[in-house]
Amino acid sequence: MNVDKENRNPRREVILRNGVRMPTIGLGTSHTGGYSHSSVVYALKQCNYRLIDTAKRYGTEEFIKHAIAECGVKREDLFLISKLWPTDYGLDNVKQALKGSLDRLGIEYIDAFLIHYPEVSSTCKNKWQTLSDTWRALELAYDDGLIRAIGVSNYSIDDMQHVEENCSVMPLLNQIEFHPYQYQTELLQYCSDKKIQVQGYCPLGHGNLVSHESVIKIANSVRRTPAQVLIRWSIQHEVPTIPKSTKQERVKENIDIFDFELSDEQIMMLDSFPQGNVKYIELDIQDKIDENLPDGYRLDKNVRDNFFQT
Fold first, then answer.
1. Does a structural domain hold residue 66?
2. The model's pTM
3. How many domains is the chain built from?
4. For position 289, which CATH number holds?
5. Which pLDDT tens digit goes with each residue over 183-212?
6. Rounded distance, CA 17 to CA 173, Å?
7. Which residues is 198 bridged to in the sheet?
8. Which residues participate directly in catalysis (predicted)?
């Protein structure tokens, strides 16, 4: 574990295999649960968040562009992550899709650009060739300096091995669901062996874990909230995380986890939770890809209109 000698706490950033520094806590902005512009600005301006996670699919990239302009934080002090949706896979499509994300975010480079899923449209004739071509296109954009770190999301060991067979540059990042119900030890070990940084999302188990009796017991013991305990668990496992909230008080709560530490016994208690009880990845992801729904389709239909009218 990367530990500050002064207070024995994990550091506020990790260093990727290529030397790029990435904050250990970020703000998720998926379209699930809505979008709060004031909370994103508050996170950047008042709570010292420096990592924002988004995706073309979420429909929030353009909102984040305005949040960056409003918060006053320098671009070089931010770490921005976005993702490539399956309908944009393929050697000829990636360049245009990346340009779209850069334009919507109002930036000249992106800190990390990820393949969103190891799945393709059902009309695709060769899944693994398409994914391989997509990865090659990311490597080229990485070589051109448009991306500081290339990576994947929701990849299993098997998926990662397919990348390894054909790549020139191994992924620097694998973003996966990570919480006590999804403690993927074999995947963590594989990524560690390959020097691939794992980043977790849904650290609260979609809200299900904050009311768990054991989590509440630990929270009372360390005089913290259940959410802080769960985020701290992730960080002490060397897995940076991107909790999401549209409430400012929760946004602040989620990043205030660097002045306490869970004991080995408390970590082991959370490690022992039954696996697979909660999982975000939709079983019908293939249908979601094939439906060709608009980006941000889960956002309230008035969000965009109201935002650009103000």
1. yes
2. 0.94
3. 1
4. 3.20.20.100
5. 999 999 999 999 999 999 999 999 999 999
6. 9
7. 174
8. 58 (proton donor)
